[in-house]
Amino acid sequence: MKILVINAGSSSLKYQLYNMTDESVLAKGLVERIGMDSSILTHKPAGKQEVTEVSEILEHITAIRKVLSMLTHEEHGVISSIEEIQAVGHRVVHGGESFKASALVDEAAKKEIRRLFDLAPLHNPASMMGIKAAETNMPGIPQVVVFDTAFHQTMPEKSYLYAIPRVLYNKYKVRRYGAHGTSHEYVSHAAAQFLDKPIEDLKIITCHIGNGASITAVQNGESIDTSMGMTPLEGLMMGTRSGDLDPAIVPYVMNKEELTVNEVNSMLNKHSGLLAISGISSDMREITEGMEKGEPHSTLAFDMYEYRLRKYIGSYAAAMNGVDVIVFTAGVGENSIVLRDRVLKQLTYLGVELDEELNKIRSGDPRRISTMNSKVEVLVIPTNEELVIARDTHRIVNAANSQ
Amino acid sequence: MNFKKIGVIGGGTMGQGIAEMLAAKGLDVMLVEKTPEKLEYSYDMIGTSLDKQLEKWGITLAEKKLILGRIQKVTHFAELSGCDMVIETITEDLEAKRQVFAQLDQVCPSHIILASNTSSLSLTELASSTMYPERVIGMHFIHPVSKVDLVEIIRGLKTSDNTFNETKRFVEEIVEKKGIMVFESPGFVSSRMICLLINEALHLLQEGVASPEDIDDAMRIGYSFQHGPLEMADRFGLDSVLAALERMFREFGELKYRPSIVIKKMVRAGQLGVKTGEGFFKYDKDGDRI
To answer: What's the domain range around B220?
Structure first.
């Protein structure tokens, strides 16, 4: 079965075409600047030259039409006709409490995703545009939605509720939802597979550290707690997001600086984190460079970032009364040798023993970076959210077809 | 109508605010002024306004560049033919506005909505200078445009239901503000009420009932106004407040609209509020109270 995986943003759209017989990627690409007269489509067919096309793409329907014509293009294409695509999988950011797993797209699912616009006003409408665009261009082809929040729906009440008046949960569903669920799910399963142990027997802490960063405690193969909250602002310090802070700071600063709700939101989401402390960049690579040159603000930014991550690992070890595996994934987690080094060298109380040489190896494969004596297995596992979406789509569409 | 490109006529305070707000919402804007110099000045002022928001963390540097990049500078009406809507924001001068509408009527296809940001003039009268009065409507934004989420949508006598509905959709769905429907009447709802409040504050001051600070505190703290009526007058510009009161006084003929002698005196002295650094209170060049 060939499956098209779509990740639609408000003005961009990423895609990958999978052949599920061997889970190989036939092509992937990206449409940027949707809604403008100079949109850019970058198409990378496997084993062929990358192509870039600039044209006017005003909305998502046209974007998908362009992608499909690229996939079936005489020279750059990888399939001979659209009919070869047997299913479409979509990434959706927010599944609320309604979606505990991936689901087949039908009228009820669409209605529910629309109802959740309120919780993810920046993201769910874009996903919906992607779904509609695929429907228009490929009528009758089954579609599946895979949610960033679904994996965390197993969290118990004590993890997901905030200690604020209950009525806010009852009325507006104010609670922890978490994010990066697809990634945490993928790397925790890949870790168990790598160690050749049943996931149910492992206490795993997964650190998804990219531009956004979140950390999850996985026990019995289920997410029991995660650091992002109702929105992706809570938890770890990130590139431009503050992560945890005393909520009383918000009204205090709003009052002192006469800020509007929009301004304070923008401050915490776009002007904080590494960028705010370093004053130079939100990018961990530049922060690390600054630190190596002895630049004090970069050093502080790095120290805070590392310290907060380490505290979270400690708290999740406490949450599970122990930890068997720590996994690092995503841009920074997979690539920052120095961050892993600094975190892990101060987790010896948990029995972590880092193998400095293994930690320095750069690779695209899952790998162990702890020593043989380490009581905790520490792994680096490149994440692959698109593959999870393709697999879920494959499974759900097969099940629906066999009914 | 798919609203993508919006023309904004006039680069004064309101024109700048509207152009900036529309661009921040992701729309392409064609900003029109009479001369390249005026246009450059307006564009620079928008840049300054964005810098202030950057300082307050409201936007990022990348967002500032994107917003400015969406604003195109135009000096000829003919270039507006590709706009999906045009909003006129020039000074409150009926004859000048009528000329603008007559020109727009020639340039824009007959289904394109022509809106005026007038705060008190007659839409019916403006529309009468065009061949298609059914597409003329009032869209009264309130200063500062990016922060005040209310727009009065004013129907002239001949404004069609379709024009109104499309304008309402534009206001509520595209620029995400609350649109209230108002039928033509001097000062509509917002200006009529706020000018009367200001005028009453002026009477209190004139009668020596309370000091400017105390009058403002009474409303600000007592009734949760963001600014008191006198500071509001300073921020609107005392000349604009006076002009609005005089117009309403003329139209309604009722004494309650007669402008207080205090404001007349201050306008004659050129003490116009924030824009001159002094009105009832003093302000620095960023418009903050000293």
So the answer is: 190-276
